Amino acid sequence: MEQKYNNPIDIERVKNVDDYEIIICSICNKVYIHPVRCANCDYHFCKNCIENYLVYNPGKCPRCIFFVMKHPSPVQNKALSRLEIHCFYYPNCTEILQYDFLLKHEEKCIFNGIL
Ligand SMILES: [Zn+2]
Ligand SMILES: [Zn+2]
Ligand SMILES: [Zn+2]
Hints:
Layout: H1 20-23, E1 35-38, E2 44-46, H2 47-56, E3 69-70, H3 74-81, E4 84-86, E5 96-98, H4 99-108
Antiparallel strand pairs: 1-2, 1-3, 4-5
The structure holds zinc ion (3 copies).
One zinc ion binds at residues 87, 89, 93, 95, 105, 109, 111.
């Protein structure tokens, strides 16, 4: 399956952080990208992060005994949705985007591919 590469979201790029805990992935220490949830312990991880982890730790969860993938919680989605984030190509690109539109923007940002 084709996996698109996404730029990591450093916390410094987020304009309006009020709760680090809920937006930072404990594997990559960056803002979640495509988060998924462990059905067993309710912790979230980036989809990519947990998939890489599972390659070396089949069936295991970094937080509990075993990992069963589940959709992110509504609370999680809401916390991410309200974030306003500088484009990856800041300061060349001065756009500030809502989380839900960030990845789409970066894909077609005029600075993507030339920096
Ligand atoms: Zn991660
Ligand atoms: Zn777990
Ligand atoms: Zn941009």
